[in-house]
Amino acid sequence: MKLLPIFSLALGLLTAFAQPALAQQGPNTLQQPFVTVNGVAQSNALAEVIFRAKRLQGAPDSDDVRQSVRTALIAQAVLEPEAIKAKIDQNPLVQAQIELARRDVLISAWEADFVANYQPSDADLKAEYAAQVAKLGKREVLIRHLLVKDEDTAKAIIKDIKTSVKTMAELAAQVSEDAGTKGKEGLADWAPLNSLSPELKETVKGLNKGKVANKPVKTAHGWHVVKLEDIRPLQAPSLDSVKPQLTRLMAQRALENHIKGLLEQANAQ
What we know:
By secondary structure, this protein is of the alpha+beta class. The chain has helices at about 25-30, 45-55, 65-85, 90-115, 120-135, 150-160, 170-175, 180, 200-205, 240-265; strands at about 35, 40-45, 140-150, 190, 215-220, 220-235. The strands form 2 sheets. A 4-stranded antiparallel beta sheet has the order 4-3-6-5. Strands 1-2 form a two-stranded antiparallel sheet. β5 and β6 form a beta hairpin. The model is unreliable at about 1-25 (pLDDT under 50).
């Protein structure tokens, strides 16, 4: 079951420039050679970019990964002259690709810098917090559920539960395809009622505490069998505990508005 996290964010920004990895930050260190190939120095900055890209793809900070960075730089240093010798760099389409890549790097770095340096006022931050808390509603729920691929299977599971053939917890542990809750016998975390998907929210609203829904619920993920384990007044997080997330959310919105304004002002013919 997909539960929307409190103050969920979708920044979609370049993060490879966020923290140092291979080399300590600073122009002097980054400009120093990481490896020299045929007399040409390949800088720490080049190694750093490759390394961070690998980290973003899930690679660990290990000697093997560092060696792979070195190997990649050596290969590039050896092969680039061959491409230039073949005059590949004079191909207009190749030149266009290089220019587009340059623009992408600059724009992504600018976006990341904009978000990192954005500082909302205390008043704006409090207003955003109040708005987000209001969206969460006044109740939060504890749900047990299981997920299967087809409706008939879900209906059969509900019948087994209703006739006490097996418990909801047993069936969730055995047949649920939701990796996030299967190991917890189908039990999800406490979540605001308003954070549930529309289909699940509508079903849960009609349930009494401790009851299983009579019909399975269809979502984009499959068919859900749902039980309302408990319900309580919403315990919203404090402003201090979510301040970093709120700041990023507001920064992203400010960035989007800034970009929108620039595009509206552009004189494109």
